[in-house]
Structures are given as C-alpha cells and as structure tokens.
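Checklist before submission:
- one chain only
- standard amino acids only
- sequence pasted in full

Submission:
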Amino acid sequence: MEARPLSILLVEDNPADARLVKEVLRETGEPIALIHAERLSQAIGHLRQQRFSAILLDLRLPDSEGLATFTRAHAEAPDAPIVVLTGLHDEDLAVKALREGAQDYLVKGQVDGRLLHHAIRYAIERHRVEEALLATQARLQQVLTSSPAVLYATAITPHGFSPTWVSDNILRVVGYEAREATTPTWWIDHLHPEDRPRVEREVRRLLTDGRLSTEYRLRRKDGSYAWVQDDSRLLLDAAGKPVEVFGAWLDVAERRQAEEALRESEQRFRELADNVREVFFVADPETGQALYLSPAYEEVFGRSREHAYAERGHWLEAVHPEDRKRLLAEILATVRGAEPGSEVFRVVRPDGSVRWVRSRVSPVRDASGKVVRTVGIAEDVTELRRTQAQLVEAQKMEAIGRLAGGVAHDFNNLLTAITGHGELVLGALRAGEPLREDIEEMLKAAERAAALTKQLLAFSRRQVLEQRVVDLNALVADLEKLLRSLIGEDIELHTIPDEGLGAARADPAQLQQVILNLVVNARDAMPKGGTLTIETRNVELDTVSGSAHEPVKPGAYVMLAVSDSGAGMTEAVKTRVFEPFFTTKEVGRGTGLGLAMVYGVVRQSGGYVWVYSEPGTGTAFKIYLPRVDEQPVELAVRPSPAEPVGGTETVLLVEDEDVVRRLARIALAKRGYRVLEAANGAEALLLCEREQRPIEMLITDVVMPGMTGPELARQLASRRPQMKVLYVSGYPQGAMAQQGALPPGSAFLDKPFTLHALARKVRQMLDASVS
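Returned file contents:
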C-alpha cells in the first residue's frame, strides 16, 4: 500500500528561497504535495480550504511582519505543525515563535534536504504526540471530575507528609478547591477530633504495612463533616525507600446512612421480636428447617431455639401428634401456591402442659416466582380460647336463664289457677268428705311445683331477694344440726370458720337453701360415706385469679367452700353442672334444679360460684360474695298472717290469662267486692269511661299484649287519681323494676298466689292511707 504524500504549505515571498526549498524537498525522493503562497493572505485562503501535514512559514512577508505572522497562521490551522523559516539575524524571533507553539525553525541558507526533511517529520510527529497527550489528559481530567473518588498524592519528606496534588473533584466532597487542600497541614487540621488519634496511629502503620484502608470524618468548608473511606498505597524508590503515598478518598456518607438505617431497622426488629408474645419465624420451604425464631418461641413451645435450629423438623416435636399431619399439609399447600390462612394446633411442652397456638404462614418468592423461604407468625391463643369458651358458656347460661324465666312465668299462671280453684273446692267441702284429702294432696303438689318455679326464677336471677348484711359463720352454725341429720352417720362433717370473716350482703333464706342444695349434692356423691367440709375465708380476687373461670370484678370477697371426698366429675359434667334440668342422678332422684338455683342466687347477689373437681378426687364448690364493711343484722321474726277479710269496694281486674282472671274475680266476689274485669288495657279504659261510681283499686297484670299494666295505670291516674294500683306478674318485681317495667315503690303480688294472699293484699292496700 503506497504511503500518502505529505501535503506541505510553503509560505515564502522570496522566489529564490522558494526554489531552493522546492529543490531540496524534491531531492528527498519522498512524495510531497507542495503548495506555494507568497503572501499570508494567500496562505490563509489555502488553510481554509484544506488541511496540511505541515507549514513552512517565513515570518517576514509583504502583508505580515514578525511574530504576528505566526500567530495568525497558527490561529487558522491550530492542528497543523509549523516550522518557521528565518534569516540568521531573526533567530530570537524564531525562538519566540517556538514558545508560542511552533514545532521548529530553520535558518535560510543553512538548509539541506536531509535537515529539512527531518525537521518536517519531527514537527509532524511531535505535534501528533502532543495532541495524543492532550487528549489523554482531557480524558483523565474527565475521569477525575466525574469519579466519586478524590485522588491525592503526598510526598514523604524528612519532616513528614507533604501533600503535592489532589484531584479537582474534592470541591464536590468537602467544598474546598484543590489548591486549598494541598497546604501542608490541611488534612490533619480537617480531621474530626474524635477520629484523629486513631487515624494518626493507622497512618504510622502505613509506613510498615505499605497500605491503608480506613474511614474517618473530614470537616467540610461549611463546618459539617463528610465520612470518607481512605484507601492508600505506599510507593518506594529503586532503593526501597518510601517516597510517596498515593490514595483515594471515597464519600461513604450515603452508605453509612444506609448501614445506620439498616442497624436501626434490625434493632427495631430485635426489640419487637424480643418484646412481643407472638413468635416470628422464617423457614426453608423445601426442608422445613427453621432459619429464624424469635425469643417468644421458647415461651410458647417450651423448647430452646438452639434445639429447633439443630436439625430440620425439630420444632415439630412440640406439635401435638394428632395435629402434625394436618399442620404440615397446610404449610405444604401454602408453599405450593394456596391462599395463606391461619391454622390452630396444639403444642405439648416438656412439662406436659398443652397450649393452643394459631399460626399464619406466607411464602416469599424471588423475581422468578420461586418460593425461597416461608415466613409467619404464631401466637399462643390458649387464654383466648378459654375466654371464648367462657363467653359461650355465659351466653348459654343467659339464654337458658331467659328460657327458664319465661317457662316459670307461664307456669305460674297455671299454678295460680290450680291453687285457686283447689282452694275454692276445698272451702266448699265439709270435714270428712272423701274428696277433701285428694284436693289437699293436689294443693301440696301445686306447692311443690311452685317451689320448682322459684328455683327456675332463682337460676334466671328474676326472683325477689330480701338482702341484708349476713354473717356466713353464723349462718353455717345455725344450719349445722340440720346438716348433720341430713347427711347421715357415714359422712363426717367438718366446719372451718374464719374467725376474722367479713360480712356479705345476701338473702339469708336463699343462702341457706344454697348451702342445703350443695350439701345434698355432696351427700349423694358419697353413697358409701366420706368427708364433707364447709369452710369460710376472706379472699381477694383479681382478673388473674378469675382468668381460669370467668371475668371477675376485682376486690374483697367472702368465700364459702363446700367440699366432699366423693366420686368427682368429668370435664364434660363440669361444663353443664349449673344448667337447669341437667342431672347425673337416676330418674326420680333429682330435678336438676338444685345447682341451677345455687348459680342464680349467687350471681344475683353479685358473686361468683366456681367448681373444682376431678374423677375420683372429690368436688369443691366455692362461692365468692362481695365483702361489705357493715355489721350483720338479726332477722326479725315475722308474725303469722291473719285471716283476710273482705269488703264492698269496687275493683277493676285486668288480666289477659282467662283462667287467672276468672279465679281472681271469684275470690274477690266471694269476699263481697264488686269486680269489673277486663282482658286487656283497651277494655279496661272502656269500662272506666262507662263506670260512673268510684273505682277504689286497679289490679292489673304487668305484661299484657297491646298495653302494659303500668301504661294503663298512667292513663287512668288522671281520671281516677284516688284509685290504688296493685300489680301482679309471674316475673319477679325486682327484675321488672331493674328493667324499668315498674314504677318505683309499686305494690306487687307474685304469681302463683293463693286466694288468701290476694284477698289479704287487697284489704291491706285499701285500708292503708297511702297506696
């Protein structure tokens, strides 16, 4: 391949010098394309049209003189090397041109072919090298400017370290110009005071180790500090003597902030994991190996985390055998893509205790969708399940109570009719007649049925309690003789009274019935004899002590415990023991209402009753009544009721139950009263409108369809303000008063009532000055 000819621009106004140059160049034998210009203006025209390999330039031309000639030519062709042609007396001028950028100069008259060719070639090559060097320097400067690292060089002198150079991008890192950062003490003066002792020690080790990598803070120009990572190397001369340190500072503020944020995040996670009761876990989806377990694992599962980490599947040892297969299937389904859900299983701890745990597992996938690990949370829900069970039990007892109260109400209406008609028949029979004994037995059965309804009302907490401050020790002492005869000779009775026992507020008669019911149950549980213990004690209850049973109101209580050494109960029996009509006795030996009555009386008194029992270990019923700081009151002896007398007043009788209304009308009419009867409130209002004579008393049922008894009484009060009102109902007065169904202080008569009781109550109210 032929070499391209050199293109030379000769700028010379002397024809003889121009011929000489041309001849000399021709003698070199190298292909040269030569263009000749006699004036600078001509040369500039050529320079603007093409590029030249070199320019031979005479500085003295007709249209330009001296150094200005070179300046103008160089400005037009900065990329072309220029060799100055000068006379012998103009060498000083040529030297000035060299300083301005000329590559060489030749003295006219001393030029031969070899020298001229060498000068041209030298000029071209040196110009190319200079351009390459400038390009390299430009690229290096660009790298230094755009690099995040600040490069520096420091000379090692007998007096220490002396900075010699630093890259310009130091301005971006610390706000100082490079010239400012190369003063002898700049670096040491800008070290953070807390970092200086450590960094000075590390720099001294640089002289022996040959390298240094450390982090420290440099003070910025605005007074703040930049964290930099300093990586430096020690340079040695040929003799192995340290001469220079070359290194780089990298601004690591963002990295350190990220690391600090990560540390804070990890710290928050550790604090969260260490202080919550739930277990956080991470596991390998393929092997089930636990990768992370929070500290709560040891509390819930009863095993150390190291034990779970030791081998895959170790954590499964704590899961109840009956729940393992189901739990593993759920986890596997989640890993395979099923919707994550919660799973409840049992954990058997090393001490044998069983805890209920609810867990939720979720898969973690990589960018391709592959499950790389499973994460989840597990919480101990044992107490929650117990509380839920207690709530369900309380709701069940409340529902049964409402049902029992409704049954008792309706049954009371029937008993009122049975008892009333029985009394009417009995009153019409003479002594000795055969039917009299049958009627008396019928009335006794009705009394027993009425007692059962009272027990139902006690369970539903709808009976009227005559509460007063009582001493449980005295109550038990009064009953002790009766109890010994009740339990028989095969059972030992022990009473353990607390000498400092506080008082409680309760209905003494109902409380005696509670004790009798518990003692009878204990007796029946010990058919072959045993031990019965009645104990009293002052106790303090809180939410913790009640957590195993039901929510309690914390405070001071008086406890009455009745314990036996009998057969005990299973867990299934204990959960139903207070339900009405539930009994484990054979048919004919119990109504199933005794413990229901106990539960109702205690709860209506503001207390709690808990049962403790295991098969073969006996049973203990513990009753807790709120302790009061008052003295017990002796119960006054009530006089026997006198035989009721009749009257001639007018009575308005309102009752929706036909049989009860007819019976009451007969009973009152037999005693001389004038009775107006109505089946509901609307009929009663119509009767009052039509009746011109005074009506001394209104006897009304409380709960009636359309209009209640109190609503009727309010409407009649404005028309007959002197009329007295007697309410009757199968629902207890106290319960209806609490529900707002009865005005405060209302006169009331419970169903079932006897005819004597009705007549006595009516006469008492009519004779009283105030209703």
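Reviewer check: The chain has a mean pLDDT of 78.
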